[in-house]
Amino acid sequence: MELKGIHHVSAITASAPKNFEFYTKTLGLRLVKKTVNQDDTSVYHLFYGDEKGNPGTELTFFEIPRAGHNYEGINSISALSLRVASDEALSYWKKRFEEADVVHEEIKERAGRSTLAFKDFEGQRLILVSDEANKGVAGGIPWEKSPIPRNYGILGLGPVQLTVRQAEHTITVLTQLMGFRQVGQYPSSVPNQPDIIVFETGEGGTGAEVHVEERTDLPPARLGRGGVHHVAFRVDNDEELRAWIERIKKARFGNSGFVDRFYFHSLYFKEPNGILFELATDGPGFDTDEELEHLGESLALPPFFEPQRKEIEARLKPLDTKQG
Asked: Domain VOC, which positions (predicted)?
């Protein structure tokens, strides 16, 4: 029962068309699934990833058109990161962001790696992380039809950052319940705040890290467009997921139990500071109901929603997602 790394991160957007434009054309990710939020089928759920949406490469967005602004603060997933192959790739991206008027910082070191922080059109906080010296979970394979040269393409998800008032409670869950191990720390960019602590699981490396930031100067976050809803961690298969469900129950955490998302199977629970965690299986995968060549082009619905297709499509605004 060892978590293999980060599975996916899910965030909120108020505009599926603008989101699709930014993440496919500016960042060069592939839309691997256009489906609906299974808890509210009136809105889109978009999945981006590498060439086939391998676990560990999936960045997903719920479209909530009337979502308010995201307010930064404690008890939140305060940043997510995306892996690139080298320090040279960061220089490419810095120039690309300058040309595209993408808000970004300078290249700087975080946790011993070169990084480049930037924001999307809604203020989503993202960090490009160089894998130049990385050892650990392998990255994905950029899609050959991406507008980004393959040697500079995004390889998958990097570390997620959790910002909390009292780090001790979150750390206890990560280490004693979920099996993460502390591997380092680095200074906060904010004066008079504790170091950010680095934890890893599985093979470790950029694809398997959680960075915990304790902040005493912030109010509670308020989730909205440009914010992160939850982070999911990789579980090998259903048998292991059911063992995790029992483990979470024994620890007396309220949880969702087994949830069938069709493309993977999940368990949801909140850690003590209120951040939503998900454990998700590596399979079955996104090519279960679509040909690999045509992923994301049409509205895909799990079999249990197919009888409602006409009603679901009637509530959704058309979204052209042809790529390449």
From this structure: 5-131, 156-282
Q: Indicate the SS3 state at residue 247.
A: helix
> Which residues does 253 contact at the CB level (< 8 Å), separation at least 6?
177, 269, 270
Domain membership of residue 322 (yes or no) is no
Task: Give Cα 193 to chain centroid, integer Å.
Answer: 26
8 Å CB contact between 53 and 288: no
**pTM for the structure as a whole:** 0.97
Is 125 inside a domain boundary? yes
Instruction: For residue 195, give the DSSP letter.
Output: P
Residue 242: its H or E element: helix 238-250
Cis peptide before 284 (omega within 30 of 0): yes
Q: How far apart are CA 12 and CA 19, in angstroms?
A: 10
Pairing type for strands 181-186 and 156-164 reads unpaired
Q: Is residue 33 part of a domain?
A: yes
Alpha-carbon span 97 to 80, nearest angstrom: 18
CATH number of the domain to which 238 belongs: 3.10.180.10
pLDDT tens-digit series, residues 41-98: 999 999 999 999 999 999 999 999 999 999 999 999 999 999 999 999 999 999 999 9
Q: How many domains does the chain divide into? A: 1
**Taking phi first (over 0 means left), then psi (-120 to 50 degrees means alpha), and beta for anything else, what does residue 176 get?**
alpha
- Which H/E stretch holds residue 14? none
Which residues of the chain register pLDDT less than 70? none
Beta carbons of 202 and 3 less than 8 angstroms apart: yes
Residues in the chain: 324
